[in-house]
Specification:
Layout: E1 2-6, H1 11-22, E2 25-29, E3 32-38, E4 42-52, E5 55-64, E6 68-73, E7 80-87, E8 89-93, E9 101-104, E10 107-112, E11 118-123, E12 128-136, H2 147-155, E13 165-171, H3 173-183, H4 189-216, H5 227-242, H6 250-257, H7 261-272, H8 276-294, H9 299-305, H10 311-322, H11 326-339
Helix pairs in contact: 3-4
């Protein structure tokens, strides 16, 4: 097994350290760095984004050709790692002698090493690893006045001095959606920068909220779905997003997914905080808003395009979400276009 050692926690330094260790080419855009690797050791990409002085985002979509241990050693105080697995699983420990914990797909983890001052990730050969981590750096003494960092440091500290903070949370598909949004940002320049920063901060907020919810419901039943059923729920949600115009019923989706109606409802409530019907309705309204902005279709045509049959019902749910009628929204778009 090959061991890779990096001794940095900032985006720029981490990506440069990784390039030295595994090769590849780096392309940088402002504070965004993408390492592309295609050699005998690995194939894929590692992205590193500096969000703020104290916050970095690191995303792995890579396959190694031999077993790899990646050890991140900290020189001063310990940063907080907000880690999320989008696909497959991730193995982690604080030292190579500690117990190894496994982070499953769609699962969150918050990790902070206060005793060993290190994080260790394990990569099996010929397995695609798709996960990301937000590193909140607590090394810089000037950050002591940073309210956010102070709150995070206090919240995610172990109860006993010298111990590590380990939290492996429940499943969350909202985070997966945000990561997908991050990967599809196509804008350039300052717009891209602002979208990246806001999306990474939204991911961080979801990670923190997930921890808060899990602590609040520590003695509650989180559900009976296994990881394969969660994967199926994600596939169903993607299908709905791609084809909002279909006339869905719970029976149809149950048959298509081979999940019982109760499993579907449980999965959507657990992962999206919505019933199946509410999820479909929200997808249709968001698709309609996009069509109003990007097409010349009239409201009636948009209603039909997104799979609804009643214009009055569409107006009602659109206004509930956006606080204006679809006609008002469309008229405003047309006014802006005329004056542009």
């Amino acid at each position: 097994m090959k061991t890779l050692n990096i001794k940095s926690t900032t985006a720029t330094k981490m990506i440069k350290d990784l390039q030295v260790l595994i090769g590849g080419d780096i392309k940088s855009y402002n504070k965004e760095h993408i390492l592309t690797v295609d050699n005998s050791l690995a194939t894929g990409t590692i992205s590193a984004i500096s969000v703020k002085k104290s916050i970095s985002f690191l995303a792995f979509d890579i396959t190694f050709n031999e077993d790899i241990t990646l050890k991140n050693t900290f020189l001063k105080s310990a940063p907080i790692y907000f880690t999320y697995c989008s696909e497959g699983h991730v193995e982690h420990s604080f030292t190579e002698q500690d117990t190894v914990n496994t982070l499953d797909a769609f699962q969150t983890a918050i990790l902070r090493s206060t005793s060993s001052k290190s994080n260790v990730y394990y990569f099996k050969k010929q397995v695609n690893f798709n996960f990301s981590t937000i590193v909140v750096n607590t090394d810089d003494i000037s950050l002591a006045t940073n309210e956010l960092n102070a709150q995070l440091s206090e919240t995610f500290s172990p109860t006993n001095q010298g111990e590590n903070f380990i939290y492996f949370g429940s499943y969350n598909l909202k985070i997966a959606e945000k990561i997908e949004q991050l990967n599809t940002i196509s804008q350039d320049g300052v717009v891209r920068r602002l979208l990246i920063e806001s999306t990474v901060q939204a991911i961080l907020a979801l990670e923190i909220q997930q921890h808060k919810d899990d602590v609040a419901h520590a003695n509650s039943h989180f559900g009976s779905l296994n990881i394969n059923e969660l994967e199926t729920i994600k596939e169903v949600s993607l299908f709905i997003n791609n084809y909002p115009e279909k006339q869905y019923t719970l029976k149809y989706l149950s048959h298509k997914s081979a999940l019982s109606p109760s499993k579907l409802q449980e999965g959507f409530k657990l992962l999206y905080g919505r019933t199946v019907t509410d999820y479909i309705r929200n997808v249709r309204v968001e698709k309609a808003e996009e069509l109003i902005k990007t097409t010349d279709l009239n409201i009636s045509e948009i209603v039909y395009t997104v799979g609804l049959t009643s214009r009055s019902y569409f107006s009602k749910i659109f206004k509930e979400k956006y606080n204006c009628s679809p006609k008002q929204y469309q008229d405003n778009q047309n006014t802006l276009a005329a004056t542009a």
